[in-house]
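Margin note: ligand = fe (ii) ion.
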Amino acid sequence: MAAPEDMQLVGRVLLDPTRPLPARFRALFTLRNLGGPEAVELIGQGFSDESALLKHELAYCLGQMRDRTALPVLIAVLKDRTQEPMVRHEAGEALGAIGDPEVLDLLKEYSEDPVIEVAETCQLAVRRIEWLQQNPDAPDNIPYLSVDPAPPAEESDIPALRATLLDDNCPLFERYRAMFALRNIGGKEAVLALTEGLQCGGALFRHEIGYVLGQMQHESAVSGLSAALERFDENPMVRHECAEALGSIAQEECLKALQAHVKDDEQVVRESCEVALDMYAYENSGDFQYADGLKQVQECP
Ligand SMILES: [Fe+2]
Ligand SMILES: [Fe+2]
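Resulting structure:
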């Protein structure tokens, strides 16, 4: 357990807008790993930042920590229409990840939000919490450690899952369930089916495909992810997720794609490429994993 002064030190890095963004991300991941109410409190202080990328990651981490003490700040962010859609989306998703039925009424209310990504996120979160109420003993999403917005489908036939995934008439929750089942099955055929999903559905759906492909770290996704990052008319939230996925696959071709967009017109895409390239440098530096403790934060510029 970290000493309180260490926690505060890491918090100062996270909350200092003059620090380079990759250093702030590393501080955030350190706080997430340390956990506890003090970490939640420090992370919660970051929502007035000017980087939507950082703020959406704050919300994501609070959801993954599944700490109920984060509920008030996440609720406030979801309600705050001055926050970017991507940030409000992630706050709604985090409320679903924490999974407390106390927020069901609020999530139902925001299922009608005029911002489609926010509305769809809240609809999914409602379905997830209700599903958990009906399936209290469901196992976690092995082999991945993330808390996902929907449980994997029970189906295990890849063509059947692909058909559900790519069906624009199918309810979003079922398409998400197919997506997470394909991820858990893994392998080239599942990756290629998921990559097709980068060209259908709404922006929320496509961004989640990018996220899942990043988790899978499979080389067969590289050309589809690079193509999505190149599409300037694509929603920045989708392009951002594809950039991060390329960073986690981290092959030569991925790096080229990321380097080509470090000066992108979209702030969120630019910053994603910057953070992804930093993650790559860390993962290849040998000694330690990204986001793996205080040492890195204390050493960063
Ligand atoms: Fe997201
Ligand atoms: Fe994201």
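The chain has two domains: 1-138, 140-301.
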